[in-house]
Design a protein that fits this description.
This protein has 11 helices and no strands. The chain is mainly α. It folds into 2 domains: 126 residues; 64 residues.
Length: 244
Protein backbone atom coordinates (compact mmCIF):
# COMPACT_ATOMS: atom_id res chain seq x y z
CA UNK A 1 0.00 0.00 0.00
CA UNK A 2 1.27 3.46 -0.88
CA UNK A 3 1.16 6.39 1.53
CA UNK A 4 -1.56 8.03 -0.57
CA UNK A 5 -3.73 4.91 -0.38
CA UNK A 6 -3.19 4.69 3.37
CA UNK A 7 -4.42 8.26 3.84
CA UNK A 8 -7.52 7.52 1.74
CA UNK A 9 -8.21 4.42 3.84
CA UNK A 10 -7.87 6.44 7.04
CA UNK A 11 -10.39 8.94 5.69
CA UNK A 12 -12.89 6.23 4.77
CA UNK A 13 -12.72 4.82 8.31
CA UNK A 14 -13.33 8.29 9.73
CA UNK A 15 -16.33 8.75 7.42
CA UNK A 16 -17.81 5.44 8.53
CA UNK A 17 -17.31 6.34 12.18
CA UNK A 18 -18.93 9.74 11.74
CA UNK A 19 -21.96 8.33 9.91
CA UNK A 20 -22.46 5.51 12.40
CA UNK A 21 -22.07 7.87 15.36
CA UNK A 22 -24.65 10.32 14.06
CA UNK A 23 -27.21 7.74 12.95
CA UNK A 24 -26.66 5.89 16.22
CA UNK A 25 -28.27 8.81 18.09
CA UNK A 26 -31.63 8.12 16.41
CA UNK A 27 -34.35 6.42 18.43
CA UNK A 28 -35.50 3.22 16.77
CA UNK A 29 -37.74 1.57 15.74
CA UNK A 30 -39.51 4.12 13.55
CA UNK A 31 -43.13 4.19 12.49
CA UNK A 32 -42.07 3.84 8.85
CA UNK A 33 -40.45 0.72 7.42
CA UNK A 34 -38.68 2.81 4.77
CA UNK A 35 -36.85 4.80 7.44
CA UNK A 36 -35.62 1.62 9.10
CA UNK A 37 -34.55 0.01 5.84
CA UNK A 38 -32.75 3.09 4.51
CA UNK A 39 -30.58 3.15 7.63
CA UNK A 40 -29.97 -0.59 7.28
CA UNK A 41 -28.85 -0.06 3.69
CA UNK A 42 -26.48 2.71 4.77
CA UNK A 43 -25.09 0.41 7.46
CA UNK A 44 -24.59 -2.23 4.77
CA UNK A 45 -22.77 0.32 2.60
CA UNK A 46 -20.49 1.18 5.52
CA UNK A 47 -19.54 -2.48 5.97
CA UNK A 48 -18.75 -2.76 2.28
CA UNK A 49 -16.57 0.35 2.49
CA UNK A 50 -14.69 -1.14 5.44
CA UNK A 51 -14.23 -4.22 3.27
CA UNK A 52 -12.57 -2.08 0.59
CA UNK A 53 -10.25 -0.63 3.24
CA UNK A 54 -9.35 -4.07 4.61
CA UNK A 55 -8.59 -5.37 1.12
CA UNK A 56 -6.44 -2.34 0.29
CA UNK A 57 -4.43 -2.80 3.46
CA UNK A 58 -4.04 -6.53 2.92
CA UNK A 59 -2.49 -6.41 -0.52
CA UNK A 60 -2.28 -4.58 -3.84
CA UNK A 61 -3.38 -7.78 -5.62
CA UNK A 62 -6.87 -7.67 -4.03
CA UNK A 63 -8.14 -4.94 -6.34
CA UNK A 64 -10.89 -7.13 -7.94
CA UNK A 65 -12.83 -7.87 -4.71
CA UNK A 66 -12.32 -4.22 -3.68
CA UNK A 67 -14.03 -3.16 -6.92
CA UNK A 68 -16.94 -5.49 -6.15
CA UNK A 69 -17.29 -4.22 -2.57
CA UNK A 70 -17.16 -0.59 -3.71
CA UNK A 71 -19.87 -1.28 -6.27
CA UNK A 72 -22.05 -2.87 -3.58
CA UNK A 73 -21.56 0.13 -1.27
CA UNK A 74 -22.49 2.48 -4.09
CA UNK A 75 -25.66 0.55 -4.98
CA UNK A 76 -26.84 0.21 -1.37
CA UNK A 77 -26.38 3.92 -0.67
CA UNK A 78 -28.15 4.91 -3.90
CA UNK A 79 -31.13 2.73 -3.02
CA UNK A 80 -31.27 4.16 0.52
CA UNK A 81 -31.21 7.75 -0.72
CA UNK A 82 -33.78 7.04 -3.45
CA UNK A 83 -36.08 5.42 -0.89
CA UNK A 84 -36.11 8.50 1.36
CA UNK A 85 -35.99 11.15 -1.38
CA UNK A 86 -39.76 11.96 -1.36
CA UNK A 87 -40.93 14.49 1.21
CA UNK A 88 -44.10 12.47 1.84
CA UNK A 89 -43.30 9.54 4.18
CA UNK A 90 -46.03 7.48 2.51
CA UNK A 91 -44.29 7.85 -0.84
CA UNK A 92 -41.15 6.54 0.89
CA UNK A 93 -43.21 3.56 2.02
CA UNK A 94 -44.34 2.94 -1.55
CA UNK A 95 -40.69 2.75 -2.56
CA UNK A 96 -39.90 0.46 0.34
CA UNK A 97 -42.67 -1.88 -0.82
CA UNK A 98 -41.01 -2.15 -4.24
CA UNK A 99 -37.74 -2.92 -2.45
CA UNK A 100 -39.46 -5.56 -0.29
CA UNK A 101 -41.07 -7.18 -3.32
CA UNK A 102 -37.56 -7.84 -4.59
CA UNK A 103 -37.04 -10.35 -1.78
CA UNK A 104 -40.31 -12.12 -2.61
CA UNK A 105 -39.21 -12.42 -6.24
CA UNK A 106 -35.80 -13.70 -5.20
CA UNK A 107 -37.31 -16.34 -2.91
CA UNK A 108 -39.63 -17.45 -5.72
CA UNK A 109 -36.56 -18.17 -7.85
CA UNK A 110 -34.69 -19.84 -4.99
CA UNK A 111 -37.65 -22.13 -4.27
CA UNK A 112 -38.05 -22.99 -7.95
CA UNK A 113 -34.34 -23.83 -8.30
CA UNK A 114 -34.30 -25.83 -5.08
CA UNK A 115 -37.32 -27.97 -5.87
CA UNK A 116 -36.94 -28.47 -9.63
CA UNK A 117 -33.17 -28.46 -10.16
CA UNK A 118 -31.73 -29.61 -6.83
CA UNK A 119 -34.55 -31.76 -5.49
CA UNK A 120 -34.35 -30.41 -1.94
CA UNK A 121 -37.00 -29.46 0.60
CA UNK A 122 -37.71 -25.73 0.43
CA UNK A 123 -40.40 -25.53 3.12
CA UNK A 124 -38.46 -23.00 5.19
CA UNK A 125 -37.90 -20.71 2.22
CA UNK A 126 -41.56 -21.07 1.21
CA UNK A 127 -42.70 -20.11 4.71
CA UNK A 128 -40.46 -17.05 4.66
CA UNK A 129 -41.64 -16.09 1.17
CA UNK A 130 -45.31 -16.46 2.11
CA UNK A 131 -44.94 -14.41 5.28
CA UNK A 132 -43.22 -11.53 3.49
CA UNK A 133 -45.71 -11.71 0.62
CA UNK A 134 -48.66 -11.48 3.04
CA UNK A 135 -47.12 -8.51 4.79
CA UNK A 136 -46.45 -6.83 1.43
CA UNK A 137 -50.06 -7.43 0.35
CA UNK A 138 -51.46 -6.05 3.60
CA UNK A 139 -49.45 -2.82 3.49
CA UNK A 140 -50.13 -2.45 -0.23
CA UNK A 141 -53.87 -2.64 0.39
CA UNK A 142 -53.64 0.26 2.80
CA UNK A 143 -51.49 2.42 0.55
CA UNK A 144 -53.23 1.75 -2.77
CA UNK A 145 -56.16 3.91 -1.67
CA UNK A 146 -54.18 7.10 -2.10
CA UNK A 147 -50.88 6.17 -3.75
CA UNK A 148 -49.71 4.58 -6.95
CA UNK A 149 -47.79 1.42 -6.10
CA UNK A 150 -44.69 0.34 -8.01
CA UNK A 151 -44.33 -3.06 -9.67
CA UNK A 152 -40.58 -3.04 -9.18
CA UNK A 153 -37.50 -0.92 -8.65
CA UNK A 154 -36.40 1.54 -11.32
CA UNK A 155 -32.97 1.03 -12.91
CA UNK A 156 -29.97 2.63 -11.23
CA UNK A 157 -29.73 5.57 -13.72
CA UNK A 158 -33.29 6.63 -12.83
CA UNK A 159 -32.54 6.44 -9.12
CA UNK A 160 -29.43 8.53 -9.69
CA UNK A 161 -31.40 11.20 -11.54
CA UNK A 162 -33.78 11.51 -8.60
CA UNK A 163 -30.98 11.97 -6.08
CA UNK A 164 -28.99 14.30 -8.35
CA UNK A 165 -26.05 11.94 -8.95
CA UNK A 166 -26.53 10.79 -12.57
CA UNK A 167 -22.97 11.86 -13.45
CA UNK A 168 -21.51 9.06 -11.31
CA UNK A 169 -23.08 6.24 -13.33
CA UNK A 170 -20.04 5.77 -15.59
CA UNK A 171 -17.87 4.77 -12.62
CA UNK A 172 -20.54 2.36 -11.42
CA UNK A 173 -20.63 0.77 -14.87
CA UNK A 174 -16.86 0.32 -14.75
CA UNK A 175 -17.06 -1.48 -11.41
CA UNK A 176 -19.82 -3.73 -12.76
CA UNK A 177 -17.32 -5.17 -15.25
CA UNK A 178 -15.40 -6.83 -12.43
CA UNK A 179 -18.54 -7.97 -10.62
CA UNK A 180 -19.88 -9.59 -13.80
CA UNK A 181 -16.58 -11.01 -15.04
CA UNK A 182 -16.47 -8.80 -18.12
CA UNK A 183 -13.46 -8.85 -20.45
CA UNK A 184 -12.64 -5.30 -19.35
CA UNK A 185 -11.91 -6.59 -15.86
CA UNK A 186 -9.13 -8.98 -16.95
CA UNK A 187 -6.76 -6.38 -18.37
CA UNK A 188 -4.98 -6.42 -15.02
CA UNK A 189 -3.63 -9.84 -16.10
CA UNK A 190 -2.97 -9.22 -19.80
CA UNK A 191 -1.31 -5.80 -19.92
CA UNK A 192 -2.19 -3.73 -23.00
CA UNK A 193 -2.67 -6.08 -25.93
CA UNK A 194 -4.82 -8.79 -27.50
CA UNK A 195 -3.91 -11.60 -29.89
CA UNK A 196 -0.17 -11.73 -30.51
CA UNK A 197 0.26 -8.47 -28.60
CA UNK A 198 -1.01 -9.80 -25.28
CA UNK A 199 1.30 -10.15 -22.31
CA UNK A 200 1.03 -12.19 -19.14
CA UNK A 201 1.44 -11.01 -15.58
CA UNK A 202 -0.25 -8.68 -13.13
CA UNK A 203 -0.66 -5.04 -14.02
CA UNK A 204 -2.35 -3.45 -11.01
CA UNK A 205 -1.48 0.19 -10.38
CA UNK A 206 -2.37 2.78 -7.76
CA UNK A 207 -4.40 4.53 -10.46
CA UNK A 208 -6.65 1.48 -10.67
CA UNK A 209 -6.96 1.41 -6.88
CA UNK A 210 -8.08 5.04 -6.94
CA UNK A 211 -11.39 3.92 -8.46
CA UNK A 212 -12.77 1.77 -5.58
CA UNK A 213 -11.28 4.10 -2.99
CA UNK A 214 -12.90 7.12 -4.63
CA UNK A 215 -16.29 5.52 -5.21
CA UNK A 216 -16.31 4.35 -1.59
CA UNK A 217 -16.52 8.01 -0.58
CA UNK A 218 -19.68 8.39 -2.65
CA UNK A 219 -22.00 6.95 0.02
CA UNK A 220 -21.02 9.73 2.40
CA UNK A 221 -21.71 12.52 -0.08
CA UNK A 222 -25.05 12.78 -1.92
CA UNK A 223 -26.74 9.71 -0.41
CA UNK A 224 -25.69 10.47 3.18
CA UNK A 225 -26.72 14.11 2.77
CA UNK A 226 -30.24 13.00 1.80
CA UNK A 227 -30.41 10.56 4.72
CA UNK A 228 -29.14 13.14 7.21
CA UNK A 229 -31.62 15.71 5.92
CA UNK A 230 -34.52 13.29 6.32
CA UNK A 231 -33.61 12.60 9.96
CA UNK A 232 -32.53 16.20 10.66
CA UNK A 233 -29.01 15.10 11.56
CA UNK A 234 -25.99 17.40 11.48
CA UNK A 235 -24.13 16.72 8.23
CA UNK A 236 -21.31 19.19 8.91
CA UNK A 237 -18.98 16.51 10.28
CA UNK A 238 -19.14 14.46 7.09
CA UNK A 239 -18.88 17.59 4.94
CA UNK A 240 -15.73 18.67 6.79
CA UNK A 241 -14.10 15.26 6.35
CA UNK A 242 -14.98 15.15 2.66
CA UNK A 243 -13.63 18.63 2.03
CA UNK A 244 -14.41 20.86 -0.96
Amino acid sequence: MTEEMALKCDLLEELVEELETKTGTLRRPFNFESYEEALNLMALACRQVLGVVALARTGFHLLPPADVAARAAYEASVRAAWMLRPDDPMECEVRWLAHLLGEVNYLDKEIDEGTKEMGINMDEAESRRDGIARFHAGVSKQLERGYRLKKGLPPIPEMLIEIGERKTYAIYSLLCQTAHGGHYSTWIFRGTGVGTQKTHGEFITQEKWNVPLAISRFAFKGPAAIIFNRFRLDYSGLAKLLGP
